[in-house]
Every structure is written in C-alpha cells, then in structure tokens.
Design goal:
- The protein is an alpha/beta fold.
- The chain has 6 domains: about 10-90 and about 245-265, 2-Layer Sandwich (Nucleotidyltransferase, domain 5), CATH 3.30.420; about 105-235, Nucleotidyltransferase, domain 5; about 300-565, ATPase, nucleotide binding domain (Nucleotidyltransferase, domain 5); about 585-625, no CATH class; about 640-815, no CATH class; about 820-975, Rossmann fold.
- It is about 40% helix and about 20% strand.
- The strands form 8 sheets. The chain has a 6-stranded mixed sheet with strand order 10-19-18-15-16-17, sandwiched between helices.
- A hairpin with a 3-residue loop joins β1 (about 10-15) and β2 (about 20-25).
- α4 packs across α6.
- The chain is globular and about 95 Å long.
Length: about 1000
C-alpha cells in the first residue's frame, strides 16, 4: 500500500504482550489493518507502521491495551470498551467472546452485547499462543510451518499444562521414536483448543454463539478443532478478529472532536519509570574461576585408545572422543537435537570423523547419557548408558576432587547435586518452572528481543543497572520483560536482569533449603555464558568454578564411569569403527506386549546393523544394566501385595439379585478404607462397581485442584457413564487413631471432595451418598448414626443399616489385623536386602493411574518396594506426636525407621498442591539430612523423562553407596 491521502483518518492502536495491532479507517466501509510482533520494542514497530503507511494530514487516534497507557500521550480506552464498541458496530451479540492472544486467554461472558464477566487464564505460558510458538521452535519449526505439519499429524498424549513438562514429554516421545514432529504439532494445537474449551465450560455460561478474536483466530487447524469441540455452538471468526480491539479503538477515534486530531510527528511519548536494579554482574569477577577457553585447539593422537562419549540431551546432543591414557577431550561436537537424537548423533559422528581425519585410532568403548540415552544406547547396539545426574557428578569430582556442590543448567533441565566425601548424596531437578533453564533465557532474548544467544553474555556483563525481575515464573517474567522494554529500559539491563532471574529461580526452586557448599562447580551448556556464572557468584557469595568444557561434562562423566568399569574388570574393551557406526540404520521390526505387570507395555523390536533389540516400556526391564548393577533380576513389590489383599481378598461380593448398584470411585480414601466401603455396601444389599480410569473425566474439575482430586472427578465421571444407581463418596474426617490422643485427619481436599464433585456434575443428594464418617474410636458411635441415616435415604431400616455399619467396621478391623500379621511374617525377610519405602498417600503410591509405574520401575532394578504403612511403629519423640495428619504421621514414622535400619531407603512421594505435604516438606528434609533419599511430585502432567531420571539417579546413588560400603568392608577384612 502506498501513501494514503485525503481527509483525517481514524485510527486504533493496540499494544499487546507480543504484538502491535493497528487499524486505519478511511470511511465507514473502507479500512486497513495489520498485526506485527514487537519483540519487546513496540515503539519501534509503531514507527515502522507509520513509516510504511504515512498520512499527509492529521489523524484521530485512540490507543488500547494495558502496556500502551505508559507509552503515548493519546486518548485511551480499555480493551473491554473497545470490544463492546466493535461488537455494536457489527451488530454482534454473542454469548461468549474468546480473546486468544499471545500471552493471555480471556473468556468474556456477554448479555445483549454487554460484557458481564471476564475470566482470564492462569499466568502460565502453557495456556497461550506464545507457548505454541515456543514449542514449535524447539522442533525447528516456524508457526506457519508447524500449522502445516499439524495437518499431517495424529494426536499423542502430551503434558501441555506446563512448559517444562511439555518439553520433556515431547522430547521423550521424539527421542524414543514414538511419534513425529507432525504428531507433536497436531497435539499442541488440539490440546490448546481443549484448554479453551475447558475455560468456557468453567464459565458456566450460555454457549449458543461464540466469537473468537486475537492472533489465534488466524490458526485454521486450531479453529477447526474448536468447531469440533463446540459442535452445538455457532463459532464466529471475522476478518477483523485478529485486530478486534484496535478496530473498536478506531471507532472511538471517529467520535473524537476534530481538534484532537494530530500529525504523526507530534505524537509524544511518555517518560518511562526507572525499574528497581541489581548490582552489576562484573562486581563478582573476583569470585569466579572461569576456565573456559574459547576455540581451544584439540588434537586427536595417532594410535591412541578412546571412549566415544555421547550426551543425548533434550535440547542439544554432544559427542566426544575421550583419550583413555591422558584423560583429555581430543575431539568434540555440540549440536541441536531438534527432537531427533539419532539424527543428531549421526551428525555428531560425521563431525568427529572429520576431526579424526586420516589418523588411525582405537575406539574401545561407547558410553552414553542424557534424556535420549535409551534409544541412543540401542543405536550403538546396547552400549553402556549412565544416568545423567551421576555422569555430571563423576565429571565434577574429576575436575574438582573436593567439590561439594554442583549447579548444572542445561537447555531444558536443571540439576543440583550435593556431595559428601566425594559421593553424591542429594540431588534435585527442575520440575514445574522453565524460568530456571537455558531455554527460557535463549527464547526470551531471541524471540522477545531479537538478540542472538552469542551476544547474551557480552550485553549482560556491560549492564550497569540490571533490572530486578525476581524469582518468578516464565510467563510473569516475560510480561515484566516486555513491560520494561516498552518503558524504555536498555536491552543490556533487561538481559542482565533475566540472567539474575534464572539463578534466583534455580536457587529458590531447586536448592531451596539445601546447603550450598564452599566448593561450587557450575556446568552445563548455560555455563558457557559467563554472565550466568557471575550471577551465581553474586547471589551465593561462593567461589564458582566453571570447567574448561562445561557443555561436555555429561559426555566426560559417562566416559569416566565406563573407564572405571574397564579398570575394575566389569566392562571389556571392544573395537569400534566410527565410519561403520555411521552406516547403521534403525528399523522397527514389530512390537510385542510385555506381560510382566498390569501395565502391559508395548515393546518395540528395533533392528540395528542386523541385530535386534527390545526397547521401551515404563520400567527398567529392557534397559541395559551395567555389570556392577544389582544381579537380582526382580525385587518384591509389596504395593501389589497390599492392593491384592485390599481389593481382592477383602473386596466386594456380587449378588444375583441386588437392590441395585453403588459405585465406589477408585480414588482418595478408597485406597485406605475399601474393605469397609465394600462390606457396608454389600451389607446394605447392593452390588459394588469400582470405577475405571478416565482422563476425560479428570478434566471435569471446575477449578485448580490437586491431582488425586482430579482422578476422583474422573472416577465419578466413569461411574456416571456406567449408569450406577448411586455413588458412594463419604466425607472422611479421620483415620484410625491408635494412641487415643492425637487427631489423624485425612486431608482437607479429600474431606470436601464430595461437595466439589456434587457441584461439578450437578448431582442430587439421592444419587451421591456423602455421609460424614470417622475411623477413630472416639467417633465410632457418631459414624454409625450417620450410617443409619444413609439406610433411611436408601429406604432401609435405620437399625439394619447400623448393624451393617458395625459389620463393615469389623471387616476393616479384620483386614488391618491380617495386614499386620503379613508385615510381621514377611517384612524382616525383605529388609535384609536393599529396600525402598514409598512414603506418601496410598491414593498416590498405590494407584496405577497416579504413580507412573513407580513400584515397577524400582523392582525391575532389583530392589524391594514397601509402603510406609507396612513398617513397624518407631517410638515417637515429642515433635512427631504433635502431627495431626494421618498419612503424614506414617511418613514421619517411615523416615525414623529408615534412619535406624540398614538397607532401607526412603522415596518421598507427593503431589503438587498437597497442602499437608507442603507444610511438612522442610521437616521431612531436615530429618533426612545426610541420608540418601528421593523426593517425587506427581500431577496429571508429570513427564516420564524427568521422572525416570530422578528415580534412576536415586537407585544409582544407592548402588554407588553400597559398592563403597562393600569395598570398605572388604578392606577391613583384608587388613
């Protein structure tokens, strides 16, 4: 479009979180509009628009958007006013208006064209258009290309609530060859549409007519998925939808008096407010031992023996040739994974072959680590693979022998490792926030600011006033970043602030109450960025060492661990040819079902260079185990024994002529009190129907709630689909109270779940049986009275119902007695070998739907698994007796027992948003100080990749400790 001349134009300008939107109206029928990403610099984009579409005369302009208020001295209207004005102009009266932008989704409920309520999405990047852009970029796809790819894909399950989990899940599936990039793109778009659908459902408003505005209105596959979800609604998408607020602003501009028209050149910009700042990063130079040498020369030695080390990470893949005699890295390659680890490994091999050239070398072994180590190990014909936490720990101890703390920050994962006498005894990985990883820093500066990764450190170090963004989630920091830039902050101050923010997040979320030692080593790809190391030094006030090649430390550690095994005679040397390895291709030659447990995993038969290998599954059954691993193939799974005793031996009877069927949700307190529930229902003359898993039903919650309560919603949904006559979901206040002194409350959410479910599914009191009940002796009579009332509700004599309750309590006591007897007869045999105690709520650790096959993952490594309620009672101290939570007291008893008992290790299992566990977390940690333990948190989006890494590291550290103890015992015997 060339110069537009004529009378005064009416213009609307909206500055959103990621884009500038502009509408120029020539007359009532003719207008121009456009949308442009501002990359954190909206003033520049506005100037570009003005330059490209100049006006010789004056313009009447109205601006909208929260960010624009602090930029221009122009008439302002709120987004709500602009939306209502635009709707009136087009005579539109939808029930719902969906504003789907880059950073925030909002549901507007309307009546006669007037906004009645605004429901914004949570401040999490996962529920936005920017999340889609970022996830596609990680697969090397632009937004347009990703949209096109999605048309060829099939949906797969992804953890799309959270950026970190989604990255892990997508990478894990791509690494295992379970899907294609097209499948991921399709799933991302479909799941984004499902989020919008759930937001609208939560609004509980009429949906006959729904209008869509915002940038996502241009995403056709997304719109089509919404049409399928809202099959009974009219979906309105107009040409003006992407710039709807700006269009409304242009209509308000038309109403301005002529004297408010201005020339573009006279539009004034407001003075920005100075943000809070942090000390310059360079002030901490004296605390940094930065050993990285840029472009340092490496030399492959003719005739030398090497180990090929590969770190197949989620974001990058690294490969090295490790000189066995000199302990040096003589060749290396560092490339992007782009969701395909095998292709990345092949590219790395090609680069190593170039670096070797014509020299003859001896590759005697291959060692792999990283999130993609499983599939890469198969590619190298089941070569040794090592957990990435231990690989990084081994490399750190070689670099700094007396290291006591390691900060490792990679593109997607961050790790904390603590050492005691040279042995890693504690570790943590990032779980719920991407703000403490390199990918967040890279995406923020490249996507939002258009600055290359290579320029980050130089700009950050030049900052004199780094902006204090704080320790906040990626979505909040992105908002603050854009706001700072919009107010005129210098890019170098913003970048330095982001660098500080990453480390503040890391320290807050990963380190937490853990102690940071005096010898701190910083490694991982992000350590190549000197400014991040300076931020660590500034915030910890510790001397920080960055090794010569921090990005390769995973490779180095895996090579050192393989070398240790060679030296100890546990791994033999072989002969590999790098060129021959390049010729290898992987083919899936079929699948089979693994019958080892109830998961019935599908295992792939992968052929590489004429050899076939099984690959896949939720547990370690088909993983290659180093020779030093436990020789016992399978441990004993007492979680399965507990479930069998509870749900089979003490399960329900089936009557030929029942009064009806009462459904029991297989969730929450059912995993503790099922023998009572089943017996009560049978004694009242009804058959019992247990629910099945329902992911669709899990999503029926009306608000944010913990994962076990989501599962309860899914269970109720399934029972409703089964058509049961009633659903039994009592208000359980207390568990069994053996000491008659301390309360044993179950959980606040578990107690109120009947009310939440009743509201979510609009159930009447006749369908949902939600009597209050307590299993403590003090409230036995009160509970029986409530059971009497339940009988009357079911048209059963009150006294008959009370007697049914008495028999149900007796049945539960019989179950507990037999359970106690089983413990006495079997536990002492089991704990003579290394045993893992799963300490947590039974509706998490015993639930196949919730626990991600955790017991199976452990037993397949040769360890026994028991639950916390199987352990004998340890004498409590005064502090422990003050606890009021039923399952928390079991966990504390398990910790006390494990500390006194050799071979017993604690795996703490919790769920995000669990209030009792959050309140006790620091107590758990302080009690376990100095012990090897694992802490896991679940939710509906927990990704297998990071979960397996944590569990694997826990078991590897136990094995390492056992080996050290065995060597010490042998040394004493020899002495």
């Amino acid at each position: 479009m060339g110069n537009i001349t004529g009378d005064t134009f009416c213009e609307g300008l909206e500055i959103g979180s990621v884009a500038v939107k502009w509408v120029r109206r020539i007359n009532s029928q003719e207008y121009y509009m456009g949308m442009k990403r501002h990359e954190g610099n909206p003033l520049e984009k506005v100037q570009e628009i003005i330059k490209r579409y100049p006006a010789k005369g004056k313009v009447k302009m109205v601006v909208t958007g929260q960010a624009v208020k602090g930029l221009f001295n122009l008439p302002y209207r709120s987004e709500s006013e602009c939306l209502e004005r635009a709707l009136a102009h087009f005579d539109l009266k939808p029930d719902i208006l969906l504003s789907l932008g880059g950073e925030i989704f909002s549901v507007y409920t309307l009546k006669d064209g007037q906004i009645r309520n605004i429901i914004p999405s949570s401040k999490c990047a996962a529920g936005t258009g920017e999340f889609l852009v970022q996830q596609l970029q990680r697969m090397d796809l632009t937004l347009d290309r990703g949209i096109q790819e999605s048309l060829k894909g099939n949906p797969v399950d992804l953890a799309t609530r959270c950026s970190v989990y989604c990255k892990s899940d997508a990478t894990h599936k791509l690494n295992k060859g379970e899907c294609s990039r097209a499948d991921i793109a399709k799933s991302l778009i479909d799941d984004l549409a499902k989020k919008v659908y759930k937001m609208v459902a939560a609004a509980r408003w009429e949906t006959r007519s729904i209008m869509i505005i915002g940038g996502l209105a241009l995403n056709e596959p997304f719109i089509e998925q919404l049409r399928r979800l809202f099959k009974d609604s009219e979906l309105i998408v107009r040409e003006e939808s992407p710039c709807f607020e700006a269009f409304g602003a242009s209509l308000f501009a038309d109403e301005l008096p002529q004297q408010e028209a201005v020339f573009y050149s006279n539009i004034s910009v407001k003075e920005p407010q100075a943000p809070f700042s942090m000390p310059p990063l360079r002030q901490s130079e004296n605390l940094l031992d930065y050993r990285v040498e840029g472009n340092y020369a490496r030399k492959v030695v003719e005739g030398a023996a090497y180990i090929l080390g590969v770190d197949a990470g989620s974001t990058t893949t690294k490969a090295i040739l490790f000189n066995l005699s000199r302990g040096t890295v003589d060749a290396s390659c560092y490339l992007r994974t782009h969701g395909n680890p095998i292709t990345a490994v092949n590219n790395c091999l090609q680069e190593l072959v170039k670096q070797v050239g014509e020299k003859k070398i001896h590759v005697v072994q291959i060692a792999v680590t990283g999130s993609g180590r499983g599939i890469v190990s198969v590619f190298f014909e089941n070569c040794p693979s090592f957990n990435e936490i231990l690989s990084h720990a081994r490399a750190a101890a070689e670099e700094v022998p007396d290291v006591d703390t390691v900060f490792e920050i990679g593109g997607q994962d961050s790790k904390f490792i603590s050492f005691l006498n040279g042995i890693p005894v504690d570790y943590a990985m990032n779980d719920g926030c991407s703000a403490g990883t390199g990918s967040f820093l890279e995406e923020a500066v490249s996507v939002d600011m258009g600055i290359s990764v290579e320029d980050i450190s130089k700009k950050a170090e030049s900052s004199l006033q780094p902006i204090a963004f704080g320790e906040r989630c990626a979505a909040f920091i992105n908002t603050d970043l854009r706001s700072a830039l919009q107010q005129g902050a210098l890019p170098e101050d913003v970048i330095a602030g982001l660098v500080y923010s990453i480390i503040r997040n890391y320290i807050s979320r990963l380190v937490g109450v853990r102690e940071v030692g005096e010898r701190l080593l910083f490694q991982g790809g992000v350590a190549l960025n000197k400014s991040v190391a300076l931020a660590i030094a500034a915030l910890t006030r510790r001397k920080v060492v960055v090794p010569q090649y921090p990005e390769l430390m995973g490779c180095v550690g895996s090579c050192l661990m393989a070398q240790d095994m060679i030296n100890e005679g546990e791994l033999s040397q072989k002969t590999y040819n790098l060129g021959e390895l390049l010729k290898g291709a992987m083919e899936v030659k079929g699948t089979f079902k693994c019958p080892a447990c109830e998961n019935i995993c599908e295992i792939k038969k992968i052929q590489v260079r004429g050899k076939e290998f099984p690959f896949g599954g939720l547990c370690s059954k088909y993983e290659v185990k180093p020779k030093h691993s436990r020789l016992k193939d399978e441990g004993q799974d007492l979680v399965a024994v507990r479930n069998q005793l509870m749900f089979e031996k003490y399960g329900a009877e089936t009557f030929r002529h029942p009064r009806g069927t009462i459904g029991i949700p297989l969730a929450l307190t059912t995993y503790e009190f099922y023998p009572f529930y089943a017996k009560l229902i049978n004694e009242l003359g009804f058959n019992v129907s247990l629910s099945k898993a329902s992911k669709e039903g899990n999503a029926k919650t009306l608000g944010s709630i913990c994962y076990p309560c989501e599962i309860a919603h899914g269970a109720v949904y399934d029972l409703l689909q089964q058509g049961v006559d009633h659903i039994f979901l009592p208000h359980v206040f207390e568990g069994k109270n053996p000491d008659h002194q301390t309360h044993n409350y179950i959980c606040g959410n578990a107690e109120i779940i009947p009310d939440l479910v009743r509201t979510a599914f609009n159930l009447d009191s006749g369908r949902l049986l939600q009597l209050p009940i307590s299993f403590s002796d003090e409230f036995r009579e009160a509970s029986l009275k409530q059971i009497g009332k339940l009988g009357e509700q079911l048209c059963i004599d009150k006294n008959i119902a009370i007697r049914a309750g008495e028999r149900a309590f007796a049945r539960y006591e019989s179950y507990k007695t037999e359970f106690e007897q089983f413990k006495k007869e079997n536990l002492y045999k089991i704990i003579t070998e290394p045993t893992i105690v799963l300490a947590g709520r039974p509706y998490v650790i015993c639930s196949a739907e919730a626990n991600l096959a955790l017991p199976r993952k452990i037993t397949s490594r040769g360890y026994n698994v028991v639950t916390a309620d199987m352990l004998p009672q340890v004498e409590e101290n005064g502090t422990d007796r003050n606890g009021v939570w039923y399952f928390t007291r079991q966990t504390i008893n398990a910790i006390n027992y494990a500390k006194k008992t050799p071979n017993v290790y604690i795996c703490l299992v919790s769920c995000f948003s669990c209030v009792p566990d959050v309140s006790m977390y620091h107590t758990f940690r302080s009690k376990l100080a100095g012990e090897v333990f694992c802490y896991l948190e679940f939710d509906s989006h927990t990704a297998h990749a990071g979960f397996e890494t944590r569990v694997g590291a826990f078991l590897d550290i136990i094995e390492l400790k056992e080996r050290e103890m065995s060597q010490k015992r042998n040394f004493k015997l020899e002495a």
